[in-house]
Write a structure and sequence with these properties.
The complex is a heterodimer. Chain A is α+β, with helices and mostly antiparallel strands. Chain A contains three helices and seven strands, in the order H-E-E-E-H-H-E-E-E-E. Chain A has one domain: 3-Layer(aba) Sandwich (Chemotaxis protein chec), CATH 3.40.1550. In chain A, strands 1, 2, 3, 4, 5, 6 and 7 form a seven-stranded antiparallel beta sheet that branches. The radius of gyration of chain A is 16 Å and the shape is globular. By secondary structure, chain B is an alpha/beta fold. Chain B has a single domain, classed as Response regulator (Rossmann fold, 3-Layer(aba) Sandwich), CATH 3.40.50. A five-stranded parallel beta sheet of chain B has the order 2-1-3-4-5, sandwiched between helices. Chain B is globular. Classes of the chains: A alpha+beta, B alpha/beta. Chains A and B meet through helix 1, helix 2 and helix 3 of A and helix 1 of B.
Chain lengths: 177, 129
């Protein structure tokens, strides 16, 4: 089964719906790529949420401090001049809703999946790595002059008798799926 | 008659949004209490008379389903309507919540109208709207 198109469509729909419903904003769909785990250094806000089940992985959202503050101000209808608790919380909840919606879509194909509590990081020049994640599907969205990245990696976890193998028969390929 | 409402979510952002939405519904609300997980929610219910609960499912310490089970197991609280508001859209969680006695279910992301519609439809006999 080729999960990639389903995943991409689900991420795009979920992101558009969450922004439209919770913020009243239409985000523009940008470039979609597949990348390895070696990410460049980050500046800004990055949130993570874990997915577990017959397939396991991580969903992530990253953006600039400016965009994070804008998300918070629009979502909570309050001032957000700098990245504070409210801003981190708003980004965490945005991640929870977007990846939660993708999880629900994927359950049709992959069976029940669990969702962890999100974690948010804010800083400069930091690197992130998800152990075992080989390939990330990265979808970019534009809100005015700022870019939001939604990243997701998923691979068979080998924890279930319903694990789906890719055509090669091994379980080492994330999203070949 | 004014109602006391309890909003349970580990996200302060969602608690703020739900407070705003509840005020917009036109419900006669006296107080909106907040809790960050099921354990805190039970503490609030022990300290205050609550007429309606809106709760997330996916929370640390005690999740929404465990909290719902505790409410429905209590002779004192079992009549209090509990509405699940969560990203968990899977059939398993929904049917588990229904089986445990949830009064309704709203999926995140939500609009103010969706919350209002749900509350009007399922809670009108129980609380002042």
């Amino acid at each position: 089964m080729n999960l990639q198109p389903i995943l991409v469509e689900s991420v795009c729909q979920a992101t558009a719906q969450v922004f439209s419903t919770m913020l009243g904003v239409e985000v523009a769909r940008g470039e979609i790529t597949t990348e390895d785990g070696s990410q460049d250094a980050n500046d800004g806000v990055v949130s993570f949420i874990g997915l577990a089940g017959a397939w396991a992985g991580t969903g992530s959202l990253s953006c600039s401090p400016v965009l994070a503050c804008r998300v918070c101000a629009t979502m909570l209808m309050c001032e957000a001049a700098s990245v504070n608790e409210d801003v981190l919380d708003a980004v965490a909840e945005l991640t929870n809703m977007i990846i939660g919606s993708v999880k629900t879509d994927l359950e049709t194909h992959l069976g029940p999946l669990g969702l962890s509590i999100p974690t948010v990081v804010f800083g400069r020049n930091f690197k992130t790595k998800s152990a075992g994640a080989n390939e990330w599907t990265v979808a970019r969205f534009q809100w005015e002059d700022e870019t939001l990245q939604v990243r997701i990696c998923l691979a068979p976890s080998g924890r279930s008798s319903h694990v789906m193998l890719h055509p090669g028969g091994t379980q080492t390929c994330a999203l070949e799926i | 008659m004014e109602s006391d409402v309890l909003v349970v979510d580990d996200s302060a952002a969602i608690r703020k949004i739900l407070q705003r939405v509840l005020r917009q519904t036109g419900m006669a609300i006296r107080t909106i209490h907040e809790a960050g997980n099921g354990e805190e929610a039970l503490d609030v219910m022990n300290a205050h008379k609550v007429d309606l609960v809106l709760t997330d499912i996916n929370m640390p310490k005690m999740d929404g389903l465990q909290f719902l089970a505790a409410v429905k197991a209590s002779a004192e609280w079992r009549q209090v309507p509990v509405v699940m508001i969560t990203t968990e859209g899977g059939e398993t969680k929904v049917s588990e919540a229904v089986k445990l006695g949830a009064a309704g279910y709203v999926r995140k992301p939500f609009t103010a109208d969706q919350i209002k519609e749900k509350l009007v439809r399922i809670l009108a006999p129980a609380v002042a709207l």
